[in-house]
Specification:
By secondary structure, the chain is of the alpha/beta class. 53% of the residues lie in helices and 12% in strands. One of its GO terms (biological process) is glyoxylate metabolic process.
Length: 313
């Protein structure tokens, strides 16, 4: 049986495979984490959450979840613990130490880290958790804020098959394409490749937008026809309105994509893979961040192309 499944493939699986749904702790309620946790609540799961921002905890409570006062309180009685934080240092901060997940979760719990971090961080976490009797999956996602809200994320998973099978009903409440990619760290490796493809694609779209506008072409019409041909992509579909309206409200921030491009370039170097185009785009992302645009959506790569083309947005 394939490891890739649509969210609608097994609508009654969670109910039929377990007498009750697992209790879930969710750590990290940001742009992605809040709508994802809310989708689990809609699917019938009891979700206890913790984050540093009170307004995010209030939002979770308003959606039917339970706000915890600490990581320890959130994870103490959880069957499944899901983390969604910005980067490796944050994963390490919430996982280790006397107030962290590993010291406070019960033995036998399943920890699913859905952050985008280095593969080695995931491997190290799985090893440390094993010593505490806690199982781990790395399960980063792709699809951005819209995918999180619509529960159509792609979820790339690293870990043991049995743990993946147990977690699958939870994943099906969050995403549409769910794939076990290999052992611990494999999900993060695939996510790094995903971020490479997305960054290069956004950069190509941004360059096309500037080229079309400077040529006097009707941009909306051009993007419509491009989207219907071989140049079409999920990136173009999702980001078309950002380009047209110069709307760079963050769905996925340049700061985070800068972090991800560092992950993929470092990982590629360690395995001897050349990234000639990816390395250039990584520098363009870094340049945009250095110019103060790190808090904008990654579609703001368009601003960098405009600057290089003579405009100063």
């Amino acid at each position: 049986m394939s490891n890739a499944r649509a969210a609608s493939s097994h609508p009654t699986r969670a109910a039929s495979s377990r007498p009750t749904r697992p209790a879930i702790a969710w750590i990290g309620l940001g742009i992605m984490g809040s709508p994802m946790s809310e989708n689990l609540i809609k699917a019938g799961y009891d979700v206890t959450g913790f984050t540093l921002e009170q307004d995010k905890l209030d939002r979770l409570a308003a959606a039917g979840g339970t706000a915890a006062g600490s990581i320890a309180e959130a994870v103490r009685d959880a069957d499944v613990i899901i983390t969604m934080v910005p980067a490796s240092p944050q994963v390490e901060a919430i996982s280790y130490g006397p107030e962290g997940i590993l010291e406070n979760a019960r033995s036998g719990a399943l920890l699913i880290d859905m952050s985008s971090i280095t593969p080695q961080t995931s491997i190290d976490l799985a090893k440390a958790a094993r010593d505490k009797g806690i199982r781990v999956l790395d399960a980063p996602v792709s699809g951005g804020e819209a995918g999180a809200i619509e529960a159509v994320l792609s979820i790339m998973v690293g870990g043991e098959q049995a743990d993946f099978d147990e977690a699958e009903p939870v994943f099906e409440a969050l995403g549409r394409t769910i794939v076990l990619c290999g052992p611990h760290g494999s999900g993060q490796t695939v996510k790094a490749a995903n971020q490479l493809i997305v960054a290069v694609n956004i950069q190509a779209c941004a360059e096309a937008v500037v080229f079309l506008e400077k040529s006097g072409v009707d941009l909306e019409a051009a993007l419509d026809v491009l989207g219907g041909g071989l140049a079409g992509s999920t990136v173009l579909t999702r980001k078309k309105d950002n380009f047209l309206g110069r709307d760079f409200k963050p769905g996925f921030r340049i700061d985070l994509h800068h972090k991800d491009m560092g992950i993929v370039t470092d990982a590629a170097r360690s395995v001897g893979a050349a990234l000639p185009v990816g390395s250039v785009v990584a520098q363009l992302v870094a340049s945009l961040r250095a110019q103060g645009d790190g808090g904008l959506d990654h579609s703001a790569l368009l601003r960098g192309v405009e600057r290089l083309s003579g405009a100063r947005p």
